Automatic annotation (TrEMBL):
Pfam families in the record: T2SSK, T2SSK_1st
GO biological process: protein secretion
This protein's name: Type II secretion system protein K
Signal peptide stretch: none
Domain T2SS protein K first SAM-like: from-to ranges: 101-203
GO cellular component: plasma membrane
Main location, first listed in the record: membrane
NCBIfam families assigned: T2SS_GspK
């Protein structure tokens, strides 16, 4: 009788232990599901804030066209970053960058024809950054529609298909600068050096003399010394150039064709980056924006998440 009572007691304890263990497991699962649901909700909310940030950037750029007219400079409202704006439980930061302050790699091919002038500009820019200038031919071959090698450092399908992980040359305009990683000769170090000074825009563009860094302007203006280019950049502080004629006045040795074809005082393409931190969620997104000069609106060319 005593043995039966002992077995019954042990069995009861085992049942209680199993029940407690099951309840604990179920509570843990429920807690994990609630945490996951909360994380998904926070992520969705943060994404909405990021989208709203891009809409804010579009509005700022569109408003700038009305207030500043046909001039864009680094002293205008669009160029001032937002370090951290509190929005309910989130912090939103944003920045707008003038993409026409950079050299457009797609300028290398105009229509279906190679641009010798733009090829020379890219070669000078590469050389100034201590990157082999002949790599400009590899960029040209990546963009141009033919399969002919442009130079000793050029590369077409024959080179790329022989790689361990083969692929073909794009043979079309670049969509994003990161394509440089796929082009012959461009190491990650070279891409990191070059990336701040080049862009990939969907149309042939000029460089905004009011926003471009010294490196880009020096590559476009080989008739000026580095000191003269630096003086030109300094002269725009507080007094941006308002017309192409004013560019010629401040840089007297610059050929009229360079001012006409390669430089301007305004921009139509900008890159907006928005960062959101909400509870345990952090995300960033960026977009290429194009301001339509006639319509007075700003459209999103592409958008991508960063993290």
């Amino acid at each position: 009788m005593k043995n039966q009572r002992g077995v019954a007691a042990v069995t009861a304890l085992l049942i209680v232990a199993i029940a407690a263990s099951t309840a604990t497991y179920m509570l843990a699962q429920q807690s994990a599901m609630l945490n996951q649901a909360s994380l998904v909700a926070n992520r969705a909310q943060a994404d909405l804030y990021a989208r709203a940030g891009l809409d804010w950037a579009r509005g700022v750029i569109a408003q700038d066209a009305k207030s500043a007219g046909s001039v864009d400079s680094l002293e205008e409202a669009w160029a001032q970053p937002i370090a951290g704006l509190p929005v309910e439980r989130a912090l939103v930061a944003g920045q707008i960058v003038d993409e026409q302050a950079k050299f457009n790699l797609n300028n290398l091919v105009r229509g279906t024809t190679k641009s010798d002038n733009d090829l020379a500009i890219l070669r000078r820019l590469l050389e100034s950054l201590e990157i082999p200038p002949d790599l400009a031919f590899a960029v040209l071959d990546w963009i141009d529609p033919d399969s002919d090698l442009s130079g000793v450092a050029g590369a077409e399908d024959g080179f790329y298909l022989a790689l361990a992980r083969p692929y073909r040359a794009a043979n079309q305009p670049m969509t994003q600068v990161e394509e440089l990683h796929r082009i012959r000769g461009f190491t990650p170090a070279y891409v990191a050096k070059l990336k701040p000074f080049v862009t990939a825009l969907p149309a042939v563009t000029t460089v905004n003399v009011n926003t471009a860094p010294i490196e880009v302007l020096a590559a476009i203006l080989p008739d000026l010394s580095r000191a003269q280019v630096a003086a030109l950049v300094e002269s725009r502080r507080g007094k941006p150039m308002r017309t192409k004629a004013e560019i010629s006045e401040r840089a007297k040795n610059v050929p009229a064709s360079t001012v006409a074809n390669d430089l301007d005082v305004k921009s139509a393409h900008f890159r907006a980056r928005v960062q959101v931190a909400q509870d345990d969620v952090q995300l960033a997104t960026e977009a290429l924006l194009r301001r339509e000069q006639n319509a007075g609106v700003t459209v999103i060319v592409w958008r991508r998440p960063l993290y």
